[in-house]
Amino acid sequence: MQLNLRTLAPALVVVTLALAGCKTAPTKSGATTTPEAGQQSAATATASRVDFYLAKREPGPGLRELSLPDGKLYLQETPVLTRADLTDAAALVDRQGQNFVGLRFSEAGTRKLTSVSTNNVGSVLALVIDQELVAAPLIGEPLNRGVLAFGVPSAQAASEIAAKIRGDAAAAPAGGTAPAPAPAPKP
């Protein structure tokens, strides 16, 4: 699998969220469930693939190499967390105007995140969306609250990444606009 590199913020650090100090940017949810059919909309069917991989700065057995502007990163082959472990993603801004993407994990995802982070302090937790490295923060401490955030360079980047993680159909590509929805078929 070939990974692409998204422009990363200069200093990415895993941060446990103190939501009281952050504002959530407005979001739209593209996935809806119809009560009659119990089916999700097409937004979920075309959702981005979201995976978290443990990574190291040094090569090792079973790790794949990824070239970065400031060196190399070595990712494990198997993700340690996936979209299924998340319950929400939001664009956040702290009191100093820094932009973040905040992630909230399910109960099962929280258990996995706690285990992975506790056993891998000093490693990197790489977020990959559709085979694109989006963030590679260092695990500085065990993450046991079921939330984490990573810095991004702009509010637009935070909104776009959060929308992709949530699976919003209206998630626009970087620097672009979302395509117009197809007209509904006439009866």
Describe the structure.
The protein is of the alpha+beta class. The chain has a domain at 4-25 and 43-50 and 79-166: Gyrase A, domain 2 (2-Layer Sandwich). The protein contains three helices and 13 strands; from the N terminus they run ββββαββββββαβββα. Strands 1, 5, 6, 7, 8, 11 and 12 form a seven-stranded mixed β-sheet that branches. It has a four-stranded antiparallel β-sheet with strand order 2-9-10-13. A hairpin with a 4-residue loop joins strand 3 (33-34) and strand 4. The radius of gyration is 17 Å and the shape is globular. The model is unreliable at 4-45 and 174-187 (pLDDT under 50).
Protein topology:
Blueprint: E1 4-5, E2 22-24, E3 33-34, E4 39-40, H1 42-45, E5 50-56, E6 63-68, E7 71-76, E8 81-82, E9 86-94, E10 99-105, H2 107-119, E11 124-129, E12 132-135, E13 147-152, H3 155-166
Parallel strand pairs: 1-12
Antiparallel strand pairs: 2-9, 3-4, 5-7, 5-8, 5-11, 6-7, 9-10, 10-13, 11-12
